[in-house]
Fold this protein.
Amino acid sequence: MGLVALLLGASGAQGATKDLQHVTLIGDSVADAIPGDDQAVAILRQGIDLDLEVAPCRRVDQDSCPINGVRPPNVVQLVKTMGTKLGPNVVVAVGYNDFEDQYATNIETALDAMKAAGVKHVWWLTLRAAHHPYINMNDDIVNAAKNHPELDVIDWNVYSRSHPDWFQDDGLHLLAPGSEAMAGLIHKTLLDAGIALKPVQVATTVLPVAHRGKSYAAKLSATSGLVPYRWSLLARAPKGLHLEADGRIIGKPLVKPGTYVLNVRVKDASATFDTQRLTLRVKP
């Protein structure tokens, strides 16, 4: 058989016309585990333009506690300094260093500062209630959301409750599984809210039959995400065939007739990715 061509659908027209929304994550030492974990960053940044503004000892509106002789800017100070660079979407994971009796007032001050900076939507993570004050402080977050339509709550406390294996001995600071879980929860929230672009997905499910020693060509396709896409194989292709970065499978199969597996991976311009197990049948 001669050349076999395959075009399975349009490749991500949606991604070509969509810009990524800017999201700023403001965090303290708990969220500071995310930038130290490449996998957590990869999870969180999918489909968004991410800015990580995290620092140990950060507080909301009181002087931050010192670390190595330096006090990082608190949330209000950071917001006022960054101004419109914050972008329209802000996620806050701050409170473990704050004072229980001032937390509600500090949240209000922070929200006022964000509004003045042009922020349109704020998500605030609840605190893991390993200590009693955090229970009341979580109530402060929930109550603030009732009075501020721009504020939504991400319930990290409930989400993490049954996972002590995510945490260091203090029950607050994150191990790698915890940082990746927090990143995943935030990303899912942004995806559900329509802020994060829907991740890229492999659309191709069937490959045309190949014939030993004959020219072969197929074109993989994907949907969603942000073009351009880049394709790769997770394992070597059957001898004689190659997967190009643009998704073309080309060459002349030089293997015995039979059924072969191609594990393909597509990555889009916003760092989302998907994999698919495809079956290639080679005939005489």
